[in-house]
Design goal:
elongated, seven-stranded mixed beta sheet, alpha+beta, 30 helices, six-stranded antiparallel beta sheet, 21% strand
Amino acid sequence: MNSARADVQIKGMTCAACVRRVENGLKSLEGVQDAVVNFATEKASVEYDPERVDVAEVEQKISDLGYEVVQAPAQALEKTTITIGGMTCAACVRRVERTLKEIPGVMDATVNLATSRALLLHEKNNPTLAVVEKAVDAAGYQFLGAVSADKEDPMEKAREAEMQDFKVKLIFGAIVSVFLHLAAMPHMIPGLASIPHKTLLIIEFLLTTPVIFWVGNRFMVGAYKAAKQGTTDMNTLVAVGSLSAYIYSILVTFFPALFAGAGGDMPYTYYDGAAMIVTLILLGRLLEARAKGKTSAAIKKLVGLSPKTARVLRNGTEIDVPADMIIRGDTVVVRPGERVPTDGRVIAGTSAVDESMLTGESLPVAKAPGDQVYGATINKSGSFSFEATKIGAETALAQIIRLVEEAQGSKAPIQRLADKVASVFVPIVFSIAAVTFIVWFFLVPNPTFSTALLNAVSVLLIACPCAMGLATPTAVMVGTGVGAQKGILIKGGESLERAYKLTTIVFDKTGTLTTGEPKVTDVVPAPGMDAQRVVQLAASLEATSEHPLASAVIKHATDAGLSPLVVENFQSIQGMGVSGLLENEETLLGNRRLMQERGKALKELDQQAVALAEQGKTTVFLAQGDSVMGVIAIADVARPSAKKAIQDLKAMGLQPVMITGDNKYTAGSVAAALGIDRYFAEVMPGDKAAEIRRLQEKGEVTAMVGDGINDAPALSAADIGIAIASGTDIAMEASDITLMKSDLNLVTSAIKLSFKTMKIIKQNLFWAFFYNVLGIPVAAGVLYPFFGILLSPVFAAAAMALSSVSVVSNSLRLRWALKSL
């Protein structure tokens, strides 16, 4: 069936019902194979048979449904990925996306907070990078340049500089905060008591100022950006809390008369509180920055798999040219051990090619004239030449790179509860503080300015977001720390937040559920023959063979303590097996076809070989002289931990699913042996990600567990990507969770860790908000008419500190809860 794809921009959709209406309407068109509508981007992606329907009919159907088709400009659209610095939360993402979409020529923009990248869909050569840079800078963020495979990722340098900046400022802020805390109790510290009170306050002011405006620069600037855009975020909360304590302390230091007679209390300063707010929140930001994944490194490694040069046959002469200079139709020569430079079709020669980077399957694939070969795969044995049929962005490797980038970019950052509340919390706090001042200055008997100001400042102080800022990072720090001790590396809080919602766990087969290395599983000798004799003869032939299965046979013989015999007249019979003289008799090791061509009667061994093949095993026969001596079965065996892990996941109410590029017989036998009820076989890399998305469309929250490059798109597309560290670095960097041991029981441990950590995070947020909900009315003086209670800034600061202590202590409790993992 012919298939083409078209993306159509649609206007007029207002809800999910519109999406379903358009999708169902398009699918009802004869010739439309599939239609997916994205409400956020207002785009329909339609797969159709061009012989039965065309794009004009698709657009007409959309119009008939009552929606407007937005015609793309005449010139082709381009995609450009840029890197942006200075984003700190989901509110920043929304602001940057809005700014980019307003640039003339930009059709769509998707911003990813985790990677600090933005993907622009725009008209060809419009806008220029200079225009984009100007718009980003005007919005208050840093334009760090366009992403290019052959250039160093600008975000890497920026991230390294940011981490260094974090460390220097954190050390300074911590030292100053400790001193300020001690200075608040001068009578308890020898030497400080002798310093005049006024002088000590000025010293505290001088030390606190750089903490607020240098150490806390990112918070102040972030709050300014949010205010400029008419919004609030976590930076606003930090700035409000720290500045209220700081400004109040300045007033006490330089204008103490303002507070004379306020309840008879001596005026206090809160320089230590202001400094600690900034320092502790900065610690949280440092922890989050460390947890961010390095997607650019994964992409760079994918690109690095392609060879830099290629041997091309031109005018009858072999010449070496840069791989990117290959022209479609070129004849390319590949020798043993070399990587295939691009996709093509074999025209001469035979070989076995390691395609594990694409399919994940450990066994090299035999290639003969007419077979397809793929760029970056490794030629294991014979030389061959092929015609280049796909180059550049058309190759399978380029498609995998594109899938990883798109899947990574499609993950919207999770909106944290604190950020959601921040949009209304700060204006409410300001309003309550203002009302508190007005009430106490104008409406109560015997009002004083100092009392009104103290109560207003108490409201601002007790609303300090310190506990909110610590609620997630401290729990994540403890949870990820315990996880690391168990061999589970988690990239950050977002991964934990998503993991506890999982419903389906999708496993790659080769290298994940199985060891990824072929092993001899069965040795079936013919009647009257000895199994060890069969293994010894087979290993003797394989000792000089380049056959893909040779290492499995040799290892099996070595483990059994069998030494190879001397082989004479060794021959490799391409596509069938090997032969040689052993003990002066012709000995053959190969497939059924080789035995048949040499006239060897398989007898009852044939039925046993068929039974083994039905279990997904590769079989080879051994013949010496006129007799077939036995059959050897080789397979990629399941990991010891796989079956128990599957049982535990089922017990937790999760559905395990297996996905593989292997044939359905092998897939079925492995799935049955492990107790997996649902599996997808013969799935190529791009389709793995598509299968994940189909599960998500059915409402499943998915985790993908894999180990190979071919798994990277699926790892990124899944709600949670879990990589086995014994696999490739690319798989690990595309994932959210990395298992440092090849023990699949860690999958269940990782999910349990997520459940328990999320429980702690929710408790932390509850306590953080509880103090505000309870404390703000008390600070405003609600209890004064009934009990004569006013909450001075001293107790407001104490309540703030108590909320922080509660959050940190609760997070530390997580260490004991996770010991059961």
